[in-house]
Amino acid sequence: MNAGNFAARLRSREQLIGYWVVLDAPVATERIARIGYDYVVLDGQHGLLGYQGLLTNLMAIDAGSSLRTPARAGAGASADADASARADAGTGTGTGTGTGAGTGAGVGSDARTGTVGLVRVEANNPTPIGRALDAGAAGVIVPLVDTAADAARAVAAARYPSPRNTNAAADASGTGTPAAADASGGSTPAAGMGGGVRSYGPMRSGLRIGPVPAEADAATVVLAMIETPQGLANVAEICATPGLDGIYVGPSDLCLSVGGRYPGDPEVADEFNAAIELIAKTARAAGVAAGIHTPDGETAQRYLAAGYTYATVSSDLTHLEEIATTHLETARSAG
Amino acid sequence: MNAGNFAARLRSREQLIGYWVVLDAPVATERIARIGYDYVVLDGQHGLLGYQGLLTNLMAIDAGSSLRTPARAGAGASADADASARADAGTGTGTGTGTGAGTGAGVGSDARTGTVGLVRVEANNPTPIGRALDAGAAGVIVPLVDTAADAARAVAAARYPSPRNTNAAADASGTGTPAAADASGGSTPAAGMGGGVRSYGPMRSGLRIGPVPAEADAATVVLAMIETPQGLANVAEICATPGLDGIYVGPSDLCLSVGGRYPGDPEVADEFNAAIELIAKTARAAGVAAGIHTPDGETAQRYLAAGYTYATVSSDLTHLEEIATTHLETARSAG
Amino acid sequence: MNAGNFAARLRSREQLIGYWVVLDAPVATERIARIGYDYVVLDGQHGLLGYQGLLTNLMAIDAGSSLRTPARAGAGASADADASARADAGTGTGTGTGTGAGTGAGVGSDARTGTVGLVRVEANNPTPIGRALDAGAAGVIVPLVDTAADAARAVAAARYPSPRNTNAAADASGTGTPAAADASGGSTPAAGMGGGVRSYGPMRSGLRIGPVPAEADAATVVLAMIETPQGLANVAEICATPGLDGIYVGPSDLCLSVGGRYPGDPEVADEFNAAIELIAKTARAAGVAAGIHTPDGETAQRYLAAGYTYATVSSDLTHLEEIATTHLETARSAG
Amino acid sequence: MNAGNFAARLRSREQLIGYWVVLDAPVATERIARIGYDYVVLDGQHGLLGYQGLLTNLMAIDAGSSLRTPARAGAGASADADASARADAGTGTGTGTGTGAGTGAGVGSDARTGTVGLVRVEANNPTPIGRALDAGAAGVIVPLVDTAADAARAVAAARYPSPRNTNAAADASGTGTPAAADASGGSTPAAGMGGGVRSYGPMRSGLRIGPVPAEADAATVVLAMIETPQGLANVAEICATPGLDGIYVGPSDLCLSVGGRYPGDPEVADEFNAAIELIAKTARAAGVAAGIHTPDGETAQRYLAAGYTYATVSSDLTHLEEIATTHLETARSAG
Amino acid sequence: MNAGNFAARLRSREQLIGYWVVLDAPVATERIARIGYDYVVLDGQHGLLGYQGLLTNLMAIDAGSSLRTPARAGAGASADADASARADAGTGTGTGTGTGAGTGAGVGSDARTGTVGLVRVEANNPTPIGRALDAGAAGVIVPLVDTAADAARAVAAARYPSPRNTNAAADASGTGTPAAADASGGSTPAAGMGGGVRSYGPMRSGLRIGPVPAEADAATVVLAMIETPQGLANVAEICATPGLDGIYVGPSDLCLSVGGRYPGDPEVADEFNAAIELIAKTARAAGVAAGIHTPDGETAQRYLAAGYTYATVSSDLTHLEEIATTHLETARSAG
Amino acid sequence: MNAGNFAARLRSREQLIGYWVVLDAPVATERIARIGYDYVVLDGQHGLLGYQGLLTNLMAIDAGSSLRTPARAGAGASADADASARADAGTGTGTGTGTGAGTGAGVGSDARTGTVGLVRVEANNPTPIGRALDAGAAGVIVPLVDTAADAARAVAAARYPSPRNTNAAADASGTGTPAAADASGGSTPAAGMGGGVRSYGPMRSGLRIGPVPAEADAATVVLAMIETPQGLANVAEICATPGLDGIYVGPSDLCLSVGGRYPGDPEVADEFNAAIELIAKTARAAGVAAGIHTPDGETAQRYLAAGYTYATVSSDLTHLEEIATTHLETARSAG
């Protein structure tokens, strides 16, 4: 799918599965991008990728994605009925209903399949967010979001200024771009778009998700990580942030945040599970996508069954270490 | 193990297991190097590593290797009784018996465990061979060896000139370096050492396997790939090349060489298996190490059981693709 | 010209023409640097250059610049009569007159021609500003300056602490460095120098623009981008920031800031042109340099004729795409 | 078009237009690849690309190519009537017909549009040829081909061994170069395929042009540069080399080869033009593609009109220098 | 020594000697790491290392460190009697005793020798601090610390959240910075540990200093640079920051801070020396390590004798320039 | 000095002093290039530089060289009276006189000072030689030259074809190597120029040493290493090779070549010294430059006094290791 299509699917809480890359190994990333994942995340925070690594691996994802055949793309995805919840909320505040869906439909009518690249940025800061998007990412996963204000800052960093915000004159033409939806001030998926502070310079992204700011905004997702004690406490407010497309659970930090001595600490399993459940429920109520980081396909499948709408299997480095260990043990075993 | 210890073990046909790296991803290579493999090969021919990649990943192997604990190191290795066959052959030609073992013992008495780095060089050419060794490789796997003359060229490229060869005066002191063994003209493992054409400049390797040429030669292995029709036809002569430490089967090319339309072509399975068996038997008779490239630990285990003395599991790129595919299928399956 | 000479010319509002680089292609940058542009800007915000790219391309500019022949250098430059306006303002506030000119003259008496490198930094943040300058940039273009406080922060980040500020004791010696000028508190070009927060470590720059802080400050320009609604509203205050050498218009973002739906939106042409004119007039009144980003030489020429004192033609990436497209069309046309 | 389609079009002497890249600037290469050129050549001989540069830019071409719309692709191409001449000759000589054509047709029936990447390798040597192809090139341009034997070596380096050559009893001669084995196979486009010495390891190329050797061979073009006095003298024999898909004129070196004191020397214009004409005529007679290096679209168009079947516009570096110079002159001119 | 051992020695004010690297030259860094320095600092602020440079050179330090022999390690180190002062103070304030010491003892009992890598981060910002530690640094030197609040931010950025802080009811205030929580924990070396904001993802560091947060914290040192006028004024408060392991004098900036016109300005020698003395005395009183940057071994030796507990010789770039200059002068001199 | 000037000075056997770089650390290389050495050699054989490293460091040399002041340049150089010997010999053999000298004089009259970059290429092979020169090297040092034929191949690889050789009827033999053609041209410095096989594409070099082949040849030096037993035996014939500008002793390999067990082996000191003396004498008789590799300025000074005309101090890596070791020892010593 292209970036617009991906954004629409994510916003409609369709089930999506991704892969998490920490290695700066573009040929491996390219191969993973053709396997059929809906998205691949490049980890700019804890991963081993500097700016050049992000740029080259985003290119690798595009190269690999072009090799996917339609048959492999997201066959199992199912629209989440709760997506309407958010549109309803939008209706409550005004006239903006349908626009988000409309945008999605418009973009989605281009049914080209493919895998998009996301970046987990190094910090909730406009500079790395802008650079990841200019380099071609279809969206950002923003770490360490503690409050709704943090989430709003992340959203603003990923969106261009809205004509409405800067030049009060009408913008009446209504081209059907997200900006039109903004006119209603509603909280449809596109409602928070525009009004951002992203600086203009879409070096790579302009070729793929369009150089027109409103169109770029419509095709760009912003996902806030819930992983700190404060973020957990404020999850409802964060989910309600206009323009935020979803939240994303970082289980390692979340486990520490509920008192674990280390990621996976069994002594806090109950607290951890309660937090996981709460986050999914809150996102569902808010009508935003609920994502989670997982170590393997089985865990991803389990979380998707339990209410999460997207899940990422992680990571190339740990999987490689794991499979290389297994092969060594097998090779050393008696025949 | 250090490079000298590795060379001694390989020459005595001890069973060794390695891993094959094609990605230029040093942090992954470092992790693999600490798992407990006896060696890691960096593929400079078909792999995605240029010169800088080889250099950095050899450093990564050294960094990762230093994390290995003694308990993990090659516990299952067993000396091959046939190693004596080659020493016997050496005896036949003169007085050189035992020197190879002696050298090995000397080096081996330093029982430090660890994983060494090898390089499959891009070609049988002194330049890439010299650069791989200067960069810190404990040995080279040389592709496309067709004849004993090819093998001799590979050996010469990896060994420094011998004092004997260049300065006819006695060199009578006999320090116990390989050069002394050469005096006998025999075919002990060290017989071909010295007399090479390697140029002096051990930038990284000098720190690890010694700056003294004869010592460096003793700690450096040269392995010839058997993969072409000519190489298969000449395998006995190749194995008999003085100074060659072992042969290494490249099954993909070998399969094409016995008439396969593609690697693994079942129509030539008989021819392929016959070739595999012949090569192992020939190496055993010659007393040199017999290695083979395998896709997984199970195959490696099988070949080791069938007479090969070292086997490499390959590769990071394909294993990563494989495990990522499996995780996606699992994630998409019904719970 | 060397960095000091460039700073003097820019501060005296001489007409200067630059080129804008977004590609990390040092050999191309080197060639552009010898064509005869007064400066080359490396884009660290939207460009495709990470830290290593900035470093290597600054070196490329120095290498290319050394190939320029005197005859090619800035032949068309004409001193702007309004430069005196600023010096006058300086006189009005005290005794600082002439210092800026004096510094410029001293540096300028070294009439070596050449092209200097500037960096458009990724953010108004001391870290990237300091690293660009340490790497050898003759100045920085700082994006997204909204207020005079923002501009002052940019200036401080690019200047070393002043002795006066830190050690109240006299500093009476008056070496004629910019710091002496600071004593007057005036608004001469050097008035804002010193008093900064730049940390000392001029790895590359020390060789070219001097390791002595005051001299480095004198040879370093700080240019604030006017591109946001707030920046436009505050342009007069920004221009009045002590130590700021000039402003720089980012037309794409500025167009969005006046309500455009996309850069170049014809519906806001009047607002856009009014803003452009206002900015030039304000800079002229303040006696600081007025620069602008342009897509081609013709536009640059037009803005210079209309009151801008420096203009940058942008960019290598778009020009290359453009010329390659033209060649393809020509090649495909009937002969 | 994909690699197979490109190969089929080139072999049928359809008119193709390419672009020549010497800069290691992947984002620029990606943009050029989407403009609509039939191919982009990465210059590994005189260009500024090392191995990593070739690898990344081949990936960039694939990424950019996926953005091309069908409408832009090669509309002006016209099949060359002489292509049949070669097929006839092949039929005439015997038993080789069918296989190559069949494979080619199969691949060619996939009419996906796009731009392929070629590499002008650094030397006529199996190592750089194999590495360029493994890295994903759809073909190689081989410099400094002096003789038919040189051309045969280039072909062999780019083609996998043929089952027929290696398994069949017929390969009795021992030396059996591919050319010898091919003698029976005629001169159909695919006739020289197989029988090569390429080693198996299609890291990136396997995903795009198929891991099956015969299919990869069918989708891989080999082009010999005519640029030396000897190459010019032997052009007919070179064109007749089985498996060679075309020749490519290097005008700079060719001009020196006909006695020019520098490329473009007017004193040897007659000799140069005669050589150019001779080469085109010879290629046409042999039924192979005739390509030429040109500085601009106009020259490319002229050569295509004059009998060349493909032409490359060169290069990013010189075009960028040229356009930047023009912009500076315009900016400095009076308005 | 491993990272835990290094931290214990630094905290006990043992004398340690380090080397300062600004070049991105991993093979040189590897060699320096085996010479026998207690630590090597990679300069991420003024040095020529981007993120990839830090990562690769940290790996180089680990590779080089593994070559050190026990005999060479820190022979001259002597425990500082004042280290007990701090532990006492910790005991006096309450319940925090034991944990830090226990962890330290456990780690310290592993007396493996070696050289650890530190990073002088580009700014007092959680992102570069976290990335340096994830990449394998045993600690960070944080520039431009002006206040105790700055120091507390640096400490928090380098430490994982403490279970106590996040799970316990006591964290009721909401804002609850780690420092507040630590107030009860005393000022033992480990007292400030935990309670940080470091995000979990120890890609390289996890292999060496343990993936368990509390253990990683125990093995990670945080050092605050004293170099600004404010920092100098607040040095006692900074030294008292819970969790801070030491301070580090940056003489160049410190000299400017006491009014020097340039680093080493003789006119402020008295002020400079007074500051140097004050800082050492303050650190000693607080029981934290006192470090300083020096140009050569002689100066390092002098400062160690004068009360500093660790000193870094700087740098590869200036030393290389210096020795190359000396060799040239010698070579040009008459024999 | 520029490349032409350097070539002229080297050919006239003026005394020149260089520095040897093995690290890929461009900022260090840039600094070394401004110290005042006549040349800097980048080691592409044993050094840690791949192609990108050579390219970037050649640029660094040009950047650093532009900072040299005239006063520092080569003050001590003294023309060698024997230079006339060679010119005489050249005159004696025929018609080739004048061109080389004329070109040299023209270039030399530009007395701009500076440091040029040379490359010790990885092998005596036209590909790395051509790439080093295209990347901007002023000359090549070619390793492992055994015979005059080897030297002639090196010369041919570095020189463009001569109009005379390619256009003249005389080239009737067909094989016509340059050496044959040169036979008539005598042994003036320029006699061997032209007649080479260098392919045209001076990407960086064209800007500095001219795009006209004959001019480029005149400004390009070719130096053959004498380091093997064969090279030593054939040193007179090698020195007599037309177009060869000098020889260069590699003492490490030469010591092994005279029977040393390791570089510097005292047991072969007499043989070594005899060889050193013989080589210098032979070069002097042949009128070519005699260079040698040395570890320090003192040794360089000694060899220059003993008849060598240029000497290189080596290397950045060992000097850095040495000075860092000294600083550590000093720091650890009692005060």
UniProtKB/TrEMBL annotation, chains A, B, C, D, E, F:
Residue ranges crossing the lipid bilayer per the database entry: none
Region of interest called Disordered, as start-end residue ranges on this chain: 78-107, 160-197
Keyword list, A-Z: Lyase, Metal-binding
Molecular-function annotations in GO: aldehyde-lyase activity; metal ion binding
Source organism, top-level taxon: Bacteria
Coiled coil: none
EC assignment: 4.1.2.52
Family listed: Belongs to the HpcH/HpaI aldolase family.
Protein name: 4-hydroxy-2-oxoheptanedioate aldolase
